[in-house]
């Protein structure tokens, strides 16, 4: 016998929203183990104390934002509709079954006006990390960093070409000092002061999102992107730092400054870091060595000229400061250039009659030149770290931590594409995505500990 349930839709029932939300629901765990009381204190300076209409509770406002990132709801309008019909969302926000859901324009207005040009999203991210530290879920001893591309909300065919200044490297003053000291130690005259030359390059600038950068990388899609530079702690894979740059900024540029920020902000006593090959630069290797941090960086494969000996065929003699070629001839020091590279050259008299000349150099004067950076010792120290037992273990952990963090952000939290345009809005999306990832991991872990106990 067929029965219809249509008449039950008109029936009245006395129910409690508390009973309708499952006890093992994720939002119950988040609400139990994450303390949101700090939000009131953070946003109080942004509100007027004695003027204007009563504002929506800031905790409710940010919980709405968190819901959008928890469940990958890209539209604020859609978020409002989801909250209207989802009992768990209502319970999380403290709304009853008949309470009016805050309008989606409330979130938009606060983002565009009240929270614009503030550090509120960074502050909230930091507070969640501090809570994780209190729960002993962040050790701050071993950190893993990498970057991932996020597609900008821009058409890659709509752009203009502009001449812009080259990125100034913040280590240039230190490098210039090292070059002068190295030349003096080798009895060379100081280099003449270089006239200030403004170096420019031509880049593509998007018409729809000028803050994004046109990215061209091997094995990566081409177009306008942002880069999310992220650091995770090895202990429980919690995210400890998020930094967003245009897609045409090299991974290594912001690394050391972001590392120092974590050490200062959270008091981390970093002992080791694991990085991808994009970070294998002499300034980073030197910076890690100076900070006393065990650096493990993936090997970067360089492709030598076809048919010629690779550089590793030439052995460096540190005591005598010279290179030895495969046939045991010496390459003596000549000079140190502005870029910080020492030049070691062979004797053309030996090379001219060498049976391996064609495999060594194609120069017209039969002279082989090998270069070595003044900070090359730091890079070799990092290479030796990678080949050690501890280094191999740390690098294996890299793909299990930072790569997993990026994958969860893109697959579960809608971080494959930028929701909005502009560096500030993308930074908000990156910070809030990382914040909900941390909250989810903390809540699940703490709930397991409690049930296990």
TrEMBL record:
Residues 16-112 form the Transposase InsH N-terminal domain. It comes from the Bacteria. It holds the Pfam family DDE_Tnp_1_6. Coiled coil: none annotated. Residues 324-443 form the Transposase DDE domain. InterPro entries: IS1182_transpos, Tnp_DDE_dom, Transposase_InsH_N. Transmembrane segments: none annotated. This is IS1182 family transposase.
């Amino acid at each position: 016998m067929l029965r219809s349930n249509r008449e039950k839709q008109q029936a009245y029932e006395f129910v409690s929203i508390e009973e309708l939300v499952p006890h093992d629901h994720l939002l119950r765990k988040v609400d139990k183990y994450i303390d949101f009381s700090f939000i009131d204190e953070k946003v109080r300076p942004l509100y007027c104390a004695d003027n204007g209409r009563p504002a929506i509770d800031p905790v409710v406002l940010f919980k709405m934002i968190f819901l959008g990132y928890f469940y990958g709801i890209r539209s604020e309008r859609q978020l409002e509709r989801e909250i209207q019909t989802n009992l768990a969302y209502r319970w999380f926000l403290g709304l009853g079954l008949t309470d009016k859901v805050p309008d989606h324009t409330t979130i938009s207005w606060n983002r565009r006006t009240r929270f614009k040009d503030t550090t509120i999203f960074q502050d909230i991210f930091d507070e969640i990390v501090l809570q994780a530290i209190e729960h002993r879920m962040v050790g701050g001893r071993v950190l893993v960093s990498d970057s991932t591309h996020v597609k900008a909300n821009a058409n890659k065919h709509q752009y203009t070409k502009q001449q812009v200044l080259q990125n100034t490297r913040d280590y240039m003053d230190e490098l210039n000092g090292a070059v002068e000291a190295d030349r003096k130690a080798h009895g060379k005259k100081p280099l003449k002061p270089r006239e200030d030359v403004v170096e420019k390059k031509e880049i593509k600038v998007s018409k729809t999102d000028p803050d994004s950068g046109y990215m061209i990388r091997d094995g990566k899609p081409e177009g306008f992107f942002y880069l999310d530079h992220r650091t995770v702690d090895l202990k429980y894979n919690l995210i400890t730092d998020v930094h967003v740059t245009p897609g045409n900024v090299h991974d290594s540029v912001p690394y050391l400054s972001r590392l120092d920020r974590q050490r200062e902000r959270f008091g981390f006593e970093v002992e080791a870091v694991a990085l991808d090959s994009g970070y294998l630069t002499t300034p980073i290797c030197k910076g890690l060595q100076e900070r006393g941090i065990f650096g493990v960086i993936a090997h970067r494969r360089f492709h030598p000229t076809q048919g010629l000996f690779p550089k590793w065929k030439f052995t460096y003699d540190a005591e005598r400061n010279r290179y030895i070629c495969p046939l045991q001839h010496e390459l003596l020091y000549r000079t140190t250039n502005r870029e910080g590279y020492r030049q070691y050259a062979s004797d053309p008299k030996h090379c001219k009659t060498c049976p391996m000349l064609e495999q060594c150099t194609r120069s017209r004067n039969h002279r082989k030149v090998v270069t070595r950076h003044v900070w090359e010792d730091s890079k070799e120290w990092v290479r030796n770290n990678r080949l050690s037992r501890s280094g191999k273990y740390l690098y294996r952990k890299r793909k299990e931590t930072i790569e997993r963090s990026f994958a969860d952000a893109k697959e579960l939290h809608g971080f494959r594409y930028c929701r909005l345009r502009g560096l500030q809005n993308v930074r908000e999306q990156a910070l809030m995505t990382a914040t909900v990832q941390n909250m989810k991991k903390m809540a699940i872990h703490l709930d397991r500990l409690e049930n296990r106990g």
